[in-house]
Amino acid sequence: MRRLIETNGWTIGLGLLLALLLLATRLIQPDFGTSGLDSLARAALPFALATVGMAVVVIAGGIDLSVAAMMAVASVTGAVLMDGASDGQAVLAVIAVLALGLAMGALNGALIVLTRVTDIVVTLAMLFVWQGVALLVLNAPGGGAAPWLRALVAGGITLPGVPAGLTGWLPRGVVFLTAVTALIWLPVARSKLGLMIYAIGSDASAAFRSGVPVGRTRIAAYAIGGLFAALGGLSVTMGTGIGEPIPGPYLLASVAAVVLGGVVLGGGRGGLLGPILAVFVLRTVRMDLTLLSVDPNVAAIVEGTIMVAVVMFGAVLATRGRGA
Prior knowledge:
Radius of gyration: 20 Å
Helix content: over 70%
Shape: globular
Largest sheet: 2 strands, antiparallel
């Protein structure tokens, strides 16, 4: 138990902080309950999926500034394909969007590997490319989403044996996030690919000398990031019922959550649970500011200041780690 706490101390601390923030939320608004948790989960879901995708790329020693634009492409593509479609056609549309996400991420990675241009420059350029693609697919919010898909993240569920007073306290959005993250990342993390992703993030030169195909591994990491970005875009459509062609505020939020979650910006260290908890911490802070009737502009300043401070702190730690 002691070793577990020492190894996962930061993540456990984030979990305790989230619990305290939810308790503060209940004190601020005594009637905060299942509907509030459901709203929090649905609001946090796109941010969490963007953060997971960003975390995989950062663990591999990179960064993807186009994550929000890829989410927009996935959102509008899914909304257009599902508009008026049957349930069977909607399933095919979801599969097509996920494949599109993999392709977009893989293209980002391939451009970085083949051109040998730094990832910041390449993904910044691709941000504009994917943003233009999203607007070509749908130049205004529209389209639709299959009812069964929207039902996956709406409302809460009750676990067996849970007291009647806690009925529906587990949001479907949290279950969906946990399921897709586990289904995609756990097999990767426990495979040779997962070891190679951590290896190239820790020291690409040493990994290359050890026989790791650095280029292909980096492309695979960006492809996985693109897959999670596609899931994030679909979650936007699932939550609103329409496609959103304008990228949302997911880029800086995902980087901040990755750093706050314990993933080192230099790569090679960290997991996915910490960043996910960090997303809910940041979203709960935003919700509490809203419940306290703080001016929206002031709330945006506070939230942005927290994000910038976290990112700067992470950059300092990464610089010191490389110096050591």
